[in-house]
């Protein structure tokens, strides 16, 4: 395609990312005819095709006509430092020139992977001083399960294999991690992902708690149900509990206050490992490198990271685990091999991108910026509650969600065919804001460099998009 030569420059903009109309059309057709997208709905794809983005700078993306959009999703919860960062681009190019790849297997490695492992041990909480690298969040969760089973087997607890997960959670798209994802819509009616190994608990969705129950009562219910499940299955069959500290793709669900501490108490009592999936919440989104300890007071046995770890510039996942687990692994007998291996585990170029991301985050105090501006984002979006089809606005810092309802009092939903989430997202798109619809929800997870002006623009645009949707539906 013939993008302007200036499109490579850090100050590139609308004009540089515009394509001649025939080329734009050809690219759109190529996508439609030949590319299977992750999470495709074939019925709507056939009709609408794709929205193709040809360039991005700062907090904006540009379509093939050169039209600018404010990216309220940071790509897919990941481009935390924004687009066009020369320091990260340079780190990637520099490492690719030095050595693009070498095997990470058995006892061979590369400098960036070793450096990054040390950096992660430094910024991770507690005794989480060890890391296994993968190519993204799904493979990190998948690898964590293998590591956990290996760990329990080494302790002579081979039957500890079951995984406790929550309805509404999202842990990935490999066969196993998809089955661990309790998101209602994650389960295609045409495929059966049920597995006896995965046990799904009630969603900790405070907004949708049983009618007439207060938050404290709801918390008691969640905890007692979890303990009953552990006892009925047998604690000696349960390996780990997986949860996002604040659920993302399942609808930015904030559990009741005190939930994490009590779940952790149960995990300790019954020798169940606590895995905190921080693929979204980590790397600054809630104002800390990791939200588990600093935001939620948790001491997980494992943290899963991905997305923001490279600010989305390269694909990387990480299983970050404890000294306690490492002590067990170190005592493994000679015949025991941990045979989980990806060709691109600890890829040097990818690790260089992560190292540059961590450097930039610290040099620019990105976490401090989020702690200061995140609450302003929350307040700006909560002002939308005066629109009568907004039932709930929830989340924390730069991880928020607006839930549309037909009736604020009863929380009744619009009929699915009203497609309310899509309608709002489509109006926002027309108005120049990228927001993501999930069912009746609109999710926002912007680049962490959002300023007060971006926050105000997002809230104003979303207000107009919801108002237009209301007019469509009422
Ligand atoms: N875990 C969580 C909490 C996620 O939000 C995601 C992706 O959205 C994943 C895991 C899967 O990560 P990936 O898409 O990088 O495989």
From TrEMBL:
Q: Which GO terms describe its molecular function?
A: pyridoxal phosphate binding; transaminase activity
Give the protein's recorded name.
Aminotransferase
Q: Which CDD domains match?
A: OAT_like (cd00610)
Q: Which UniProt keywords apply?
A: Aminotransferase, Pyridoxal phosphate, Transferase
What's the superkingdom here? Bacteria
What NCBIfam families has UniProt attached to this entry?
A: PRK07036.1
Q: Kindly give the PANTHER family that the UniProt entry links to this protein.
A: AMINOTRANSFERASE, AMINOTRANSFERASE CLASS-III
Q: So what family is this one in?
A: Belongs to the class-III pyridoxal-phosphate-dependent aminotransferase family.
A Pfam match is Aminotran_3
Cofactor needs: pyridoxal 5'-phosphate
- Write down the InterPro entries for this protein, in alphabetical order: Aminotrans_3 (IPR005814), Aminotrans_3_PPA_site (IPR049704), PyrdxlP-dep_Trfase (IPR015424), PyrdxlP-dep_Trfase_major (IPR015421), PyrdxlP-dep_Trfase_small (IPR015422)
Which organism does this record belong to? Acidisoma silvae
Q: Taxonomy-wise, where does this protein's organism fall, top ranks first?
A: Bacteria, Pseudomonadati, Pseudomonadota, Alphaproteobacteria, Acetobacterales
């Amino acid at each position: 395609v013939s993008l302007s030569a200036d499109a490579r420059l850090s100050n590139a903009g609308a004009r540089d990312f515009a394509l001649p109309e025939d080329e734009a059309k050809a690219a759109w057709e190529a996508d439609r005819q030949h590319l299977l997208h992750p999470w495709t709905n074939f019925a709507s794809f056939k009709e609408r095709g794709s929205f193709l983005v040809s360039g991005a700078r700062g907090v904006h993306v540009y379509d093939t006509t050169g039209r600018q959009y404010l990216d309220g999703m940071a790509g897919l919860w990941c481009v935390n430092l924004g687009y066009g960062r020369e320091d990260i681009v340079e780190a990637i190019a520099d490492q690719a020139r030095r050595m693009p790849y070498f095997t990470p297997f058995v006892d061979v490695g590369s400098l960036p992977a070793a450096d990054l492992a040390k950096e992660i041990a430094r910024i991770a909480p507690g005794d989480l001083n060890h890391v296994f690298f993968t190519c993204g969040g799904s493979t990190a969760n998948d690898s964590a399960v293998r590591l956990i089973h290996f760990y329990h087997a080494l302790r002579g607890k081979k039957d500890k294999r079951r995984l406790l997960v929550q309805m509404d959670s999202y842990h990935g798209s490999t066969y196993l991690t998809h089955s661990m994802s309790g998101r209602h819509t994650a389960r295609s009616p045409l495929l059966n992902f049920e597995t006896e190994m995965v046990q799904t608990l009630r969603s900790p969705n405070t907004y949708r708690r049983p009618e007439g129950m207060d938050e404290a009562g709801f918390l008691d219910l969640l905890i007692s149900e979890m303990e009953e499940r552990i006892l009925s299955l047998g604690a000696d069959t349960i390996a780990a509990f997986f949860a996002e500290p604040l659920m993302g793709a399942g609808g930015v669900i904030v559990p009741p206050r005190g939930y994490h501490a009590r779940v952790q108490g149960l995990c300790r009592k019954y020798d169940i490992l606590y895995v905190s999936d921080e693929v979204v919440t980590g790397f600054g989104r809630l104002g800390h490198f990791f939200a588990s300890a600093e935001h939620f007071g948790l001491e997980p046995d494992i943290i899963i990271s991905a997305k923001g770890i490279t600010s989305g510039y390269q694909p990387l996942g990480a299983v970050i685990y404890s000294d306690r687990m490492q002590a067990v692994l170190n005592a493994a007998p000679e015949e025991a091999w941990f045979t989980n291996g990806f060709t691109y585990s600890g890829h040097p170029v990818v690790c260089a991108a992560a190292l540059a991301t961590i450097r930039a985050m610290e040099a620019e105090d990105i976490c401090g910026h989020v702690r200061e501006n995140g609450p302003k984002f929350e307040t700006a979006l909560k002002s939308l509650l005066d629109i009568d089809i907004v039932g709930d606005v929830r989340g924390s810092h730069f991880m928020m969600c607006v839930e549309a309802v037909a009736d604020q009092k009863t929380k009744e939903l619009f009929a699915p065919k009203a497609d309310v989430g899509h309608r709002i997202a489509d109006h926002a798109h027309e108005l120049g804001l990228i927001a993501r619809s999930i069912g009746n929800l609109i999710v926002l997870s912007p680049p962490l460099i959002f300023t007060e002006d971006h926050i105000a623009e997002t809230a104003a645009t979303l207000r107009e998009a919801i108002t237009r949707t209301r007019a469509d539906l009422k």
